[in-house]
């Protein structure tokens, strides 16, 4: 791809390094910013720089935060006895968007993946155990909300073994099954099988 300007070429090169952005899309974005008001481009650049250099991580749950403790952990109205364990910050956002969960979180920072060289020591697992086992701990239930992949199931199994001997701490996993509005005939065998095994008893 030929460019009329080295500056445009450099901008396209940097934008195309972002996930999901090809060179054509990067060029379209660069030309849009070139045509936009100077303040628009300057505001975008400032927001990206502040995000990169000023965002920190919560000392308790390891989620992204603007302060030492994130807004969820600092919220006294949340149920701090209920800890939802997720692999990534995106999972926190997804669960929060449901408006159904009122507990707190613990972000592992990934999942155990020997192929990628990620072991338990590379994740925030020890801090989770310390959080649940501490003398002043409020934790009464740990919900393992990890994607049901091979790596996710391995991580959940490892966490269960690390946490199972803690007194007064119940370990649960999110339900897996048929989505609302889904047709049984289109469900894969593993999902359908887990739906049967993990079925809920209807009250009589």
TrEMBL record:
Keywords: DNA damage, DNA recombination, DNA repair, Metal-binding, Zinc, Zinc-finger. It comes from the Bacteria. NCBIfam families: recR. This is Recombination protein RecR. CDD domains: TOPRIM_recR (cd01025). Residues 81-179 form the Toprim domain. May play a role in DNA repair. It seems to be involved in an RecBC-independent recombinational process of DNA repair. It may act with RecF and RecO. It comes from Hymenobacter segetis. A zinc finger (C4-type) spans 58-73. InterPro entries: DNA_Rcmb_RecR, Rcmb_RecR, Rcmb_RecR_Znf, TOPRIM_dom, TOPRIM_RecR. Belongs to the RecR family.
């Amino acid at each position: 791809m030929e460019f009329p300007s080295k500056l445009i070429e450099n901008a396209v090169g940097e934008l195309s390094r972002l996930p999901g952005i090809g060179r054509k899309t990067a060029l379209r974005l660069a030309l849009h910013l070139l045509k936009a008001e100077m303040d628009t481009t300057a505001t975008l650049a400032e927001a990206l720089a502040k995000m990169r250099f000023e965002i920190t991580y919560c000392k308790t749950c390891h989620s992204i935060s603007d302060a030492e403790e994130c807004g969820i952990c600092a919220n006294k109205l949340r149920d701090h006895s209920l800890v939802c364990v997720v692999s990534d910050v995106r999972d926190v956002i997804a669960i929060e968007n449901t408006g159904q969960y009122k507990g707190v979180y613990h972000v592992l920072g990934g999942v155990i993946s020997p192929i990628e060289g990620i072991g338990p020591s590379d994740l925030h697992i020890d801090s989770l155990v310390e959080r649940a086992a501490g003398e002043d701990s409020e934790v009464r239930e740990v919900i393992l909300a990890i994607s049901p992949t091979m790596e996710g199931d391995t991580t959940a199994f490892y966490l269960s073994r690390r946490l199972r001997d803690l007194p007064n701490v119940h370990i649960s996993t999110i339900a897996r099954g048929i989505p609302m509005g889904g047709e049984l005939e289109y469900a894969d065998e593993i999902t359908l099988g887990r739906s049967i095994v993990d079925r809920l008893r209807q009250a009589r």
